[in-house]
Amino acid sequence: MDDERILVLGIGNILWADEGFGVRVIEALDERFELPEHVSVLDGGTQGLYLLPYLEDAAGVIIVDAIDYGLPPATLKLLRDDEVPAVLGAHKVSLHQTGFQEILALLRLRERAPRRLLLVGVQPERLDDYGGGLTPAVAAQVEPALATVLRLLAEEFSVVPAPRRSREHFTAPAISREDYETGRPSAEAACRVGDARVLAGRPRG
């Protein structure tokens, strides 16, 4: 797989507390490490079937997500290949996982499924906090999850990322993890028509 395309995919919704875990891990990966051209890092959000074009040509995929394993909160677990669609089908924390399960089924139907499929998942603690960041216990698993992704890149795909010389901004500053989690307004000051941190600068009609 030295020159075949590898995709590191974070999926989830940063607006709902621990649901944003996968996105925050790949955000840290891309901001801190240089990757070779054949390795892509993607914030898949909750896009479901729209992710199909990004996966159908990948020889290997590493997914990072919040997964209901039925384990204690903040437990980190690695799944491989056929284990991945099985757990996504049986244990969902949000609708985006239903969409992703459909993607995997379509890839197999079209004989375009990646040869290696790896899932780094964390058991969420809280999902019903709109506008909230990661809970402390789950936040503490971002670095171990990142270390797992780096290990998988090296062991499974012979990819050893180099540290970036200057830090990159993977996400827009207003929703980067540091700014988003420290800039949350109080319940009294919160915007009730959306998140003011995201709406800032948006033209009003």
List the helices and strands and how they pair.
Elements: E1 6-11, H1 21-32, E2 33-34, E3 39-45, H2 52-55, E4 60-66, E5 76-80, H3 83-90, H4 95-109, E6 116-122, H5 136-139, H6 142-157, E7 162-163, H7 177-182, H8 196-199
Parallel strand pairs: 1-3, 1-4, 4-6
Antiparallel strand pairs: 2-7, 5-6
Helix pairs in contact: 1-6
What does this molecule look like?
With 205 residues, the chain is of the alpha/beta class. Helix content is 34%, strand content 18%. The chain has 8 helices and 7 strands, in the order βαββαββααβααβαα. The strands form 2 sheets. The chain has a 5-stranded mixed β-sheet with strand order 3-1-4-6-5, with helices on one face. Helix 1 crosses helix 6.
Distance between the termini: 50 Å
Order of helices and strands: EHEEHEEHHEHHEHH
Average of per-residue pLDDT values: 82
Helix content: 25-40%
Report the major sheet.
Answer: 5 strands, mixed
Low-confidence segments, given as residue ranges, are none
> How would the global form be characterised?
globular
If you compute it from the alpha carbons, what radius of gyration comes out, rounded to the nearest whole angstrom?
A: 17 Å
Helix tally?
A: 8
Strand content: 15-25%
Strand order of the largest sheet: 3-1-4-6-5
Overall strand count: 7
Class from helix and strand fractions: alpha/beta
